[in-house]
Structure formats: C-alpha cells, structure tokens
From TrEMBL:
PANTHER family listed in its UniProt record: PEPTIDE N-GLYCANASE PNGASE -RELATED (PTHR12143), PUTATIVE-RELATED (PTHR12143:SF43)
Domain (Glycosyl hydrolase family 92 N-terminal): residue spans on this chain: 27-297
Protein name: Glycoside hydrolase family 92 protein
Native source organism of the sequence: Aspergillus nanangensis
Keyword match Transmembrane helix: no
Superkingdom in the source lineage: Eukaryota
NCBIfam families assigned: aman2_put
A single GO BP: glycoprotein catabolic process
Signal peptide from the UniProt entry: 1-16
Keywords: Signal
Gene3D superfamilies: 2.70.98.10, alpha-1,2-mannosidase, alpha-1,2-mannosidases domains, GH92 mannosidase domain
Keyword DNA repair: no
GO CC terms of this entry: cytosol; nucleus
Length: 792
C-alpha cells in the first residue's frame, strides 16, 4: 500500500483527520459506469471530483472526449491530463474545458505525445480526491487505445525518442486531484532522482478551435479561454460569445515558460491567441512538488480568478480542499444508513451500487452560478449570451436531460436535495422567459435531443410534492404553450433526432396531434413515441393547471381528454401500439416511429392510465400476460429509459409478486459494483435513480402524480435522515426528518407479505410522497415465496 506514507505525512502536517479517514463514502466507487466497449454499452461515467451539483467536474483524462466519448475509460492505461469537464453525459458535447498535464524533460503538448503510463492497481478514486502514480517515461505516439499489455511490455508504438521500460520500474511521479465547484486543486509530486525540469502544460484549445493563453510569471499564473462547444450545431441558440475561462495559479516560481500552437512550442513567449493553443511552465530541476489551483468561469478571466480566490484562497492547503469536498458529499450521503445486505460478492455489493448511485444522482442539473465577494452570484446564460445577476444565494441550474430524468431522477431530487428543487424550477421558468420554451435536452443551451415536452412532468412532479416557491402562473403559461402551440416550421420539418439548425422542437407534430389525436408517421419522425409521450405530457399539464387558480376549465378539460390519445395507437389486431399515418392507416412497418425502443416496450408507455391500457388489452390479466411474454422473451431493455417503469406495472395491475421477481432480476443483471456496472448510459442520474428507489422498495411509475408503486426492498434496514425541507416544499423548518424502513430477511426474501406505515396497514402497493416523507417507520414483512399481498 503506497498510500500509507502519504497518510502518515498528512496526519503530521495537519490537525485535521486524514483525507482517507473511513466514512460512508468508502462505499462510493466513482469508477462504476466508466467501462464499456461501445458508447451505448457504457455508463458514460468518469472518476470525477467535485462537490454535488457543481458547475465543473474534474477528471483524469485518458481520452479526447467528444459527443459519444467521455474523457476517461477504465480500460485505458495512459493518462494524458486532468480535465475540467463540462460534458454532462456521453451523448453531449464538451464545452469550454481546460486540461493540465505534468511531465518532465521535453515539453510535449499533443495529446498523443504526452500520455504517461499509470499504475492501475494504485489508482485511487473517491468523490473528493483522485490519486494516481505516474511513470515519467513519455509514451510518444500512443493514445487511449494502448492496451495494458502493450504498456506492461514497454512496447512503445511510434515511440521516437521514447525510452522503453516497464511501468513498475519507471513509476516516479504522483498526481492528486480535488476540486471545489469552480476550482480544481491539483498536486504533482516529482521524484527528483529520476527527473529533470518538471513542467506543467495547460491546454486551452484543441485542433480547429481558436483560444487564448497568457502567462504572468510574477503572479505565477497561466490564464486564458477556450470557446469550444462541441454540440454548437444543434438547436437554435448559438451562444456566440460562449467561452470557458481559466486562471491556473501555481505554488512554485516558473524557471521558464512558453506557449504552444499544435506541436510547435515557442520558448519564452507569454501570450498566444491561436488555433490549437496552450502554454507550459517549467520549474527548477530540484522541484519535487507543484500545486496548482485552477479557477474556471463562463464569465471572464477575472471571474475565474475571483472563483479561485473565494473557493480556494492562497493559504488553503490541498488537504483542506479535500476535506471541504468530502464534507459536502457526506452532508448528502451520510444521511442514509443501510443494514442487512447481500454481502458475499464484492462485485455485487449493493451498498456500493446504492451509494454510488446517489453520488451520480446528486450531480445534475448543475448550478452555473459563480460567486462574487459581496455574496451575490452571477451567471452566464447561453440563451441570452449575457451575464446575469442572481439574487443573494440564488443559483442557476442548467444541464437538463429531461427525457431521461423526468422518470425517477427528479423525484429523487425532491427527497435528497429538496433545498434545490424550487430553485431548479425557477431556472426552468427562467429558460422559458428567455427562449419562449421549456427545455427538452439543454446542455449549455437547447440541443433538441430526444422528444416531447417532459419538463411539463418535472413541474408537475415538484408541485405534487409540495414545492411551490416559483411562479405557478408562469409554469402554467409554459406548459400550456407546450400543449397548444406547435413549434416553428412544424409542418415543414421532420424534426428527426439531432437534426441540425432547427428551431425549438417542443412538441413537433402537434399540428396533427391536436387535430386528429396522433402525430402522423408519414409526416414526422418518431411519431409513435411522440404521440404516447404527448398524451402523458397532456396529463402532466393538467396537473400543473390544478395548482393554478386561473387555468381555464376548458383547457383543463381538453388536456384531460387528450391524455387518452395513447389509445389512438392501439392496434387491436396485433395487440400492440402502432404508429399511424395521417389518413389513419397503420405505419407499413410496426417498428417505425419509436424513439430508442420498439413496439414491445412502447406498448407499455402509458404511465398515467394503466387501467385504461389494461382495458385496451381486454382486461388486466391480458396485460399481465403480455408483460410475462415481454420479460420472458427478453424484450425489456433496461439499459434505456423507456423500459424503466415497466416491471412496476405488475404491481399496479395487482400482481406485486411478479414485480418483485422482475425488479430483483433487473437489478442483478443491469447493475454491479464494477467499472462495467451500469448496463446503459447513466443519463444524469436516471439509471441510478431507478436502483436507489428500487432498493428502498418503491418507484415513481407516474412521476406527474405523488404516487410511488411498491416493488421489493433490497435491504433489511435503511435509516434515512431526510434533508430539512423535504416535507415542507423545500422551505426550512430547522430540522431534518427521520425515516426507518425495515424489511427483515429482504436480501433472500423478495416478496412483500405485508406493509405498515407508522403502524397502519397498507394493502394496495402504493405509497404517496407525503406519506413517505412524514412517516417515521415503514415496515415490510418479507417472504421467500410469492404472497397474495396487493392482489386484487
Ligand atoms: C486501436 O487499436 C487497434 C489494434 O491496434 C486498431 O485496429 C484500431 O484502429 C485502433 N483504434 C483507434 C481508435 O485508434
Ligand atoms: C488549425 O490547425 C490545424 C493544424 O494544427 C489545421 O489542420 C487546421 O486547419 C487549423 N484550423 C483552423 C480553423 O485554422
Ligand atoms: C480541423 O479542420 C480540418 C480542416 O477543415 C479538418 O480536415 C479536420 O478534420 C478538423 N479536425 C478536427 C479535429 O476537427
Ligand atoms: C511533436 O514534436 C516532437 C518533437 O519535435 C516529435 O518528436 C513528435 O513526433 C511530434 N508529434 C507529432 C504527433 O507529430
Ligand atoms: C408570474 O408570471 C406571470 C406570467 O404568467 C407574470 O405576469 C407575473 O408578473 C409573474 N409574477 C411574478 C411575481 O414575477
Ligand atoms: C386570476 O384572474 C383574476 C382576474 O383576472 C385576477 O384578479 C387574479 O389575480 C388571478 N389570480 C391568479 C392566481 O393569477
Ligand atoms: C394512407 O397513407 C399511406 C401512407 O402515406 C399511404 O401509403 C396509403 O396509400 C394511404 N391510404 C389511403 C387509403 O389513402
Ligand atoms: C378489440 O377486439 C376485440 C375482439 O374483436 C373486441 O372485443 C374489443 O372490443 C376490441 N377492443 C378495442 C379497444 O377496440
Ligand atoms: C457487471 O455489469 C456489466 C454490464 O451489465 C457486465 O458486463 C459485467 O459482466 C458485470 N460484472 C459482474 C461481475 O457481474
Ligand atoms: C442477492 O443475491 C442473489 C444472488 O446471490 C441475487 O439473485 C439476489 O437478487 C440478490 N438480492 C438482492 C436484494 O440484491
């Protein structure tokens, strides 16, 4: 254990507890979801360090990320930098990032030249610090594709000037990374015996992007900006003056420095404004440790410096930053204590899956606001392309992956981050004010990725859970615009997925949907999924309307009637949902018209009216039989979101025992505690939100209502200390709530035999939100064999 000397060293230089003092965070493995051979078979997660909901996450960089590739892969064996990433998910583009990489000897600016081998078995990843031991021998010409074997053998493809040598013998540097919300704190240790002229390279922009770097040797700073926004072609907002700014302040004086354009370095130059640019600073040969704090900002270099000085001021030690970030995560995750788990197989340790799931789920939407010395906050909006002042303490939330997260992630946020929910809703309405529409998939700005206006559901979700500190009149304006106003050029564009240069997509095909009850498949892309989602969105809009006194009764009646439009897609001959053409005929191919799914899964896409769906089948047992076929024949695809609520339909229909078996099987097959432990993209917490809810024993099948459907709790006992405000719509009451969920024998007994909430028998497999957050005790009695509980 090489970490031991480090621990001892820290203990001697700080009065604080060692950075790796045991805590609940030991159950978090940020590498979960970081392995995958294809973009779809990848969690898209990275071993990032940041506090919850931070604007910027810092990550080791083993790959050059782009849309469909994140900056780190668990199978990679070369490290090429430490990156301040703003890529929230694998299918989104990076924006305005900065990368730092240490090295020795000749400065190597290019990604493909600067990779250093690292010792995988000594890599340490936690939510609050990432540590790695590096080989100082450059691996010229290698990229992330290098295999472990190649590195281990010392083979250096294309390695002009490289010294072959095995990793064991060569490891002679160490890098550690921690980060506050807008500032990275990096520490590079160089082993003098092996080393000459340590340097740090700061990459501002990649190929084809023009950025700036400036070196101030008196302040020991490198500053600059990067305007890159990889998904700039998507959506209507171009955010023309967008830039990611940075100020990197070093602990050691520069012995020399220079700038780089591509692979060309200009020694002694202190400024570059160019395509593909960066800067390097080099230190005296005897230097053994360099620390650097890197403030980042979307506003300006000055603001990046302000962020640095406020969040990690000059005298703050690396250990202090680690402690602050660790405390921020403990404040969230140490609220849950679990006993009685399936404990034998470490690769399936459910505590690791659960806590890592919470860690993933409490990162987005993220707060783009930046602090001022006055205590006010400011933020850049890509919608207005301007900087805005926020009232004291107010954040501004961005990164909305709503087609994914409306399902369970937002319900989870109302439970574990209630203090942020009203502010998140205000941010949604702010976006509506600026752009005229609620977001669909807003990265820096709207990308129009995926379909439908599921922000309607997110607002209904907050309202039904008691969150009202936002303008409900405006919420109604926003959702009723979604429901009644087709997007621009609706009858002209196809609105296919990721179509470039489109206006706000909102409900593409609404022109036809409003007239005939479905989106015509011979006219718009993804018509089947749109029709089903719009029916649910209509239901959610009507829910929002019930919270606004002046919503017109006529509109509410229209919305409630339209919420049954799913039935237009019911093909009674095939007993499947089927996309339809404008003239009412069925799409020639039943596989047409679906968004990341097929007619099997979309046939169950009626979250708000399961009895109505059952009626189409001719009764609930017929729908149950279809679910059996669906699962037994392998049609369920839990790796993508449309399948997430499906196993819980058994409970709604009156067969909770089948739900229990199915949920457990899905959890076992799609989640584990290894780096490959997410079968699909995490999608800003939705994959994990499914697991966290399922482990607790209930899931929000209809997230526009306050109901959760009971499944099968995984643990014998869970004690939760809810955050203040959970039962009061996010308003502080001065105290945390406390709930104990018990389910004796749960790890080996999947079936619910009985359920009590504070002593009251619950006979239907449904709990509502208010009941859960106010209860002190939820008691499940479990059974090894199927029971008749919840059967009707
Ligand atoms: C990775 O390596 C394999 C085998 O050497 C090669 O065929 C493939 O093209 C490489 N891929 C990339 C992205 O470099
Ligand atoms: C940027 O530089 C690269 C090579 O370094 C070159 O291929 C590319 O054309 C340049 N792009 C622009 C926009 O100048
Ligand atoms: C950079 O631009 C050049 C010339 O337009 C193009 O061929 C190349 O693919 C671009 N490279 C990247 C990495 O975008
Ligand atoms: C970059 O320049 C260095 C030194 O001149 C050279 O060894 C290396 O091969 C170059 N890298 C590439 C990718 O051209
Ligand atoms: C709430 O929104 C409505 C528009 O629906 C607007 O007229 C009103 O001024 C807003 N109220 C506040 C307090 O901002
Ligand atoms: C509803 O409309 C009436 C009449 O226009 C108005 O006086 C009242 O303030 C409105 N109420 C709300 C909650 O907007
Ligand atoms: C209905 O529309 C489909 C698709 O556009 C077309 O193939 C079919 O011929 C039409 N049927 C009638 C009766 O017009
Ligand atoms: C489907 O067809 C069956 C058998 O013809 C009929 O009894 C039922 O009413 C039909 N259901 C619907 C929704 O049209
Ligand atoms: C973990 O899950 C991944 C993805 O589902 C799977 O490929 C891998 O085999 C699983 N590992 C274990 C130990 O179950
Ligand atoms: C416990 O482990 C078994 C396999 O040993 C698995 O089938 C079962 O689903 C697990 N139960 C839970 C609650 O994780």
């Amino acid at each position: 254990m090489y970490l031991l000397p480090l621990l001892l060293l820290l203990a001697s230089i700080t009065s604080q507890t060692p950075i790796h003092a045991p805590s609940i965070l030991d159950h978090v493995n940020p590498l979960i979801g970081s392995y995958g051979t294809t973009p779809n078979g990848n969690g898209g997660m990275i071993p990032s360090v940041s506090p919850p909901f931070a604007m910027t996450r810092w990550t080791p960089q083993t790959r050059e990320n782009f849309i469909s590739q994140v900056p780190y892969g668990d199978s990679d064996r070369l490290l090429h930098g430490f990156q301040a990433t703003h890529q929230p998910a694998i299918w989104m583009g990076e924006a305005g990032s900065v990368v730092l990489m240490p090295g020795v000897g000749t400065v190597r600016p290019l990604f493909e030249d600067r990779g250093l081998a690292f010792r995988k078995e000594e890599e340490r990843s936690t939510p609050y610090v990432y540590e790695v031991r590096l080989d100082s021998t450059p691996r010229l010409g290698q990229d992330w594709n290098a295999t472990a074997e190649a590195v281990g053998d010392g083979e250096v493809p294309g390695g002009a000037g490289a010294v072959p040598g095995d990793v064991e013998a060569g490891a002679n540097g160490r890098a550690s990374l921690t980060a506050d919300a807008h500032v990275g704190h990096l520490r590079f240790d160089f082993d003098t015996a092996a080393v000459s002229s340590p340097w740090v390279f700061v990459q501002a922009t990649r190929r084809n992007w023009t950025g700036e770097v400036r070196i101030d040797h008196e302040r020991q700073e490198v500053s600059g900006y990067n305007p890159e926004r990889q998904d700039y072609r998507l959506g209507p907002d171009k955010a023309p003056s967008f830039k990611g700014y940075f100020v990197a302040r070093f602990s050691q004086p520069f012995e020399s420095y220079g700038t780089a354009v591509g692979n060309e370095t200009v020694h002694g130059s202190s400024h570059a404004h160019d395509n593909f640019t960066g800067a390097y600073v080099a230190f005296a040969p005897s230097t053994t440790r360099v620390e650097v704090r890197v403030g980042v900002s979307y506003i300006s270099v000055e603001q990046a410096r302000t962020n640095l000085e406020i969040e990690i001021p000059d005298r703050q030690t690396f250990e202090t930053t680690v402690h602050r970030v660790k405390s921020a995560w403990l404040e969230k995750l140490d609220r849950v204590h679990i006993e009685g788990v399936n404990g034998t197989d470490p690769d399936h340790d459910p505590r690791k899956i659960f806590y890592t799931g919470l860690f993933h789920a409490l990162q987005y939407p993220n707060d783009f606001s930046e602090p001022l010395p006055s205590g006010d906050r400011v933020f850049y909006s890509g919608y207005t392309d301007r900087v805005h002042h926020a009232p004291r303490g107010e954040g501004y939330y961005q990164s909305w992956s709503i087609w994914d997260t409306y399902r369970a992630e937002h319900s989870l946020l109302t439970l574990f981050a209630p203090e942020r929910v009203n502010n998140m809703m205000r941010s949604l309405l702010q976006i509506f004010d600026w752009s005229g529409w609620l977001p669909m998939w807003a990265n820096l700005v709207e990308t129009n990725i995926m379909i439908a206006t599921n922000a309607d559901v997110v607002l209904a979700n907050a309202l039904t859970r008691g969150f009202r500190d936002f303008n409900v009149s405006k919420a109604w304006d926003a959702v009723s615009k979604d429901a009644f106003t087709p997007p621009d050029r609706d009858t002209e564009l196809l609105y296919y997925d990721r179509e470039p240069d489109t206006p706000y997509e909102a409900r593409a095909g609404l022109t036809a949907y409003a007239e005939q009850g479905w989106v015509s498949n011979d006219r718009w892309a993804e018509s089947g999924s749109r029709t089903l989602d719009y029916a649910f969105n209509d239901f959610a809009c009507a829910v929002v309307g019930t919270y606004y006194a002046n919503a017109s009764a006529h509109d509410l009646a229209t919305l409630n009637a339209r919420s049954k439009n799913y039935a237009h897609l019911w093909n009674n001959q095939t007993q499947f949902m089927h996309a339809r053409n404008a003239n009412g005929s069925w799409a020639a191919d039943p596989s047409w018209g679906w968004t990341e799914g097929d007619d099997w899964v979309y046939t169950f896409d009626v979250m708000h009216d399961v009895p109505g769906l059952a009626k189409l089948f001719g009764g609930r047992s017929a729908l149950r039989d279809r679910l059996d076929v669906h699962f037994h024949q392998g049609h369920n695809e839990h790796s993508n979101e449309p399948s997430h609520h499906v196993p819980y339909l058994y409970s709604v229909l009156g067969w909770p025992a089948r739900a229990a078996e199915t949920i457990r099987a899905i959890a076992w097959e799609n989640y584990n505690a290894t780096s490959g432990g997410l079968s699909g993209n995490e999608d800003l917490g939705q994959m994990s939100a499914w697991y966290v809810f399922s482990a607790l024993g209930f899931y929000p099948v209809n997230p526009a209502s306050d109901e959760y459907v009971v499944g099968s709790p995984f643990f014998e006992k869970v004690e939760i200390r809810w955050p203040d405000g959970v039962a009061s719509g996010g308003r502080s009451t001065g105290q945390d709530g406390k709930l104990v969920i018990t389910a004796p024998g749960a790890p080996t007994k999947p079936y619910v035999r009985s359920l009590k909430v504070d002593g009251r028998e619950v006979t239907k497999p449904v709990l509502n939100h208010g009941e859960i957050v106010r209860a002190r005790k939820i008691e499940f009695a479990m059974s090894e064999t199927p029971t008749s509980w919840g059967v009707y």
